[in-house]
Design a protein that fits this description.
Length: about 200
Amino acid sequence: MKKGICTAYVRRQTLQYLCIGPVSLAAGIALAALTRVFSGTLWEVIANFGKNFVYIAVILFLVLGGGCLLFSGVRGLFWTQAADICQFIRSELPAGQKSLPGREMLALVDRDLASALEYANGTVLIGREWLFVRNAWGKPVIRLEHIREVAHCRIKNGNVILKFRDSQGVGPVTRELTAGEAADIEACLQRPVVYRQDF
């Protein structure tokens, strides 16, 4: 039995944001202090902008990125429905269920995935109503009834990457799978398979 897969996903993502955000923010501030890019008057900073462009870009990236991650982590602690996976689940739900609170949305999918079939060492889980991809590129979850096709892309080493597409061409993308694992997943889903060179 697999319990709380989506809930664990939210916890892990929130923890990552709370760890990486402050470190990035502190690194940006430390770099600004060490390089003295912002010392002097505003006019001096503007006059030296070209000379310090790379430093300024890196500092802004670290400070703004760290601030955003920290904010997202704190928000995730107190408001579950703001988590990315809750937004993905909400987009898959019928109109009558879109107003469910975040924890109820997670529980709805977790209940379905508790008895899911596992493929590729637990990387892909297929329940009665939902498909969940661990460490997916993009959204990790999609409702089975929304999967219109499976895009199958063979990479140079012979492994396969699958993308489960809805009517807009959006859906979870797996990491590398063996050809056998991909074939098992495709057979289970019984959806049209489109063979592609790339996504």
